[in-house]
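Q: Helix-turn-helix domain-containing protein, please. Structure only.
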Amino acid sequence: MATQQARRPISRMWPPAARWSEHLCMFIVRDTRGCALAAHEQLNRFPANPYCCITWMLEGEVELIEHGNDARSQLLPRHYVHGCQSRPCVSRNLGERHSFCAAFHPDAFHALFGVDLATIQDALVDASRVLPDHALRLVQAVAEAGDHDERCRLVEAFLATHATALGTTPWMRLRRMGVNVGLRVASRLLGVGPRQVQRRAQREGGMSVPTLSRLWRSERSLRQARESLARGETIDWAAHAVEAGYADQSHLVRDCKEISGRTPTRIAQDARHDEADWFYRL
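A: Structure for Helix-turn-helix domain-containing protein:
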C-alpha cells in the first residue's frame, strides 16, 4: 500500500483591494498543518521591515528566538501586534502552525488605532495590551471567521468604516517619492522643523526618517529581486543595486546584511530551498 506523503507548507500573500493599497500592504497566510516538518524547517526568518502587523495564530504556537544579534525566548501571544522592526528576527514554530497576518503601513496603523508607534518599535506584543476596543472587536471577528477570504473582507470592511481617519498623509507622499528621503524633504512635507519631524516620525511612521528611507528602499529591492527570480533571470547585482537606489553593489550588500543578516546572493540561494525563508519567496 502506498504511503501518503506529507503535504508541503502553504505560504500565501494577497494584496488588498486597490483602494486600500496605500494603507494596507498585504495579507499573509502560513499553514504547516500536516507537513511533518523537520526541526530546521520550523524556523521563520524575517528581515527588518517598515510595517505594523496584526498576526492571528489560528492554530499552534510560535516562539521568538532571535532579534538582531540577541538570543530571545519569547512565546508569542495568540493575537499579537508587530511594530516596525529595525533588525531581522527569527521565530520557531512549536509544532504545526496556521496563521493569518494583516500588514499595515505604519501611518495608517497609527491613524486607525491611535497607537504611538514609538512604544511598539522592535516589539511583538499582545494585541489586547496595545489596541483600543474597536480594534479588538476586529481582532475577535477575524479570529472567528470561517476562512481567509472572510478574514480579508473583515479587515477591508474595517478600513471602509474608518476611512475618514485615513486620507492622504505626508508619509504616503514620502513613500511614493522613492529613495533617499532626508530630513529636509520630510520637514517640508510635514510642515514642521527637523526636530519635530523626528518626533512625529517615531510616533506616526514607526521609526526615524533615515531608517524608514532605508527600509523602503530595501523593500523595493526585495520586490524587484523576487520578480526577476520568478522570471528565471540571473540577477546582475551591480545593475540591481543602481536600479534599486543604492550607490553601488557594495552599498547594497552592506545594507542587506544589516537588514537581513545575509548577503543578497546568499538570500537568493537560501530562499530557493530553505523552508525557513518562506517569507522571502512571497
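A: Brief note, in case it's useful. The radius of gyration is 19 Å.
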